[in-house]
Amino acid sequence: MSFYKKVFALALPIALQSLITIGVNMLDNIMVGSLGDTALSATSLANSFISVFQIFCMGLGMGASVLVSRYWGMKLSADNEATSLDASRALKQTVCLMLRLNVTLAAFFALATLVMPGIIMRTYTDKEHIVAMGVSYFRYSVLTYFFVGISLVVTIVLRSVGQVLYPLVVSIVAFLVNLSANYILIFGKFGAPKLGVAGAALGTLIARIVECTLIMVYLLVFDTKICFRVKDFFMNTKSLLREYIRISIPVLISDGILAIGTNSVAMVIGHLDEAFITANSITSVTQQLSTVVISGVSQAGAIVTGITLGEGDRDRTMRQGYQFFRLGLLLGGLSAAFIYLFSDAIIGIYKNITPEAMETAKSLMLAICVIIVFQGTNSIMTKGVLRGGGDTKILMLADNIFLWVLAIPLGILAGFYLKLPAFWIYVLLKSDQIFKTVWSFLRLRSGKWIKKISTGST
User: Fold this and answer.
1) What pLDDT, in 10s, does the model give residues 353-384?
2) How many other C-beta atoms lie within 10 A of the C-beta of residue 126?
3) How many helices (H) and strands (E) does the chain have?
4) Which residue in 323, 408, 419, 439 has the fewest CB atoms around it within 10 Å?
5) Could you count the other beta carbons within 10 Å of the beta carbon of residue 158?
6) DSSP one-letter string for 62-100
7) What percentage of the chain reaches a pLDDT higher than 70?
8) Alpha-carbon span 268 to 265, nearest angstrom
């Protein structure tokens, strides 16, 4: 019972924070959806590209988290001052490397959005009226990358040392700011100009600035665990660089591949009919909503595994791995039941969509019910337990193989050549989730996923 208390003490605040983020996305969709199918499709496809950046940031943060949680476990169990100092220094070096990479990545995405917004939109759809509206959305999103990126990665490392409540409070504040700004700017309330989809982008930017400011002030001034301060941005990280590349970079690559794969799915969908695009916009938010607890448990899995291994207890780590797998099956099943029971009510919220889009959304909801059981289980294992064990290179290879060799080719075949119903297109596009569930269990049993990690001084 103590295991589940520890997991959910970490997972529930993370899940609530994710729920708030998804709630923002859903409210954005509803507000923009009131402007019609074109506006909803344009913002959804534009956000598909922004989501690529966010997934890269998640990879960057989770890669750092593997090291941070392990070093934090070493620090907690250190039996001498030298070991404690080595762990503390490695903690700061990890955060420094992560932030430097994050700013570089944000600059790349911001430049791409600024220079070629039309080209980016046309990779998702050939419908020019959607492209034009998406370009308008991008115009106000250029600076968003810097603020959302820093907020994401810093939040993840704070969670890795058990600090989950403050990021939750920050998300609540950002939610309220985003909701207010979107309402004012999309619809032109309180004397503000009526900006439509551009207002949604600008409202999001304002909320991200507030969020980033609050999270960075906490890290640089009030945090007493990592103790990262402004001067540490300029610290020498050479001694940890090799270990950081070995453990963290494969996570970035793996999640980057996931981002590109998710984007490829969006491209397949974007070149189908407009009803399918709109239906996917509705169901994607619902899928995120149903997996918030799974996402929280995944991150908790990486943290708990890293800390336990940092304390030197391999046997307990293996037992926890099997507990996490069973928990994944249970939560996946509950998520499927949630979607099945509430799908009609959720689709009914969207009043101004076409009957064709509504019918397609219902088919996609059924497909998600099937996939979510497997997705929930392998997410907790691959993004949680196995990653926390340091098995990042093998996970990178597995993501590559299952996504690019199986899922995407099958999805393209189903959508463009066989012209299968929406249900089967979606199932085949997500079939990698099924294969990864089986593989992750076999990898867990082998015990080969537990890797040694050094502080760079040994």
Assistant:
1) 778 878 888 888 899 999 999 999 999 999 89
2) 11
3) 18, 0
4) 419
5) 25
6) HHHHHHHHHHHHHHHH-SSHHHHHHHHHHHHHHHHHHHH
7) 94
8) 5
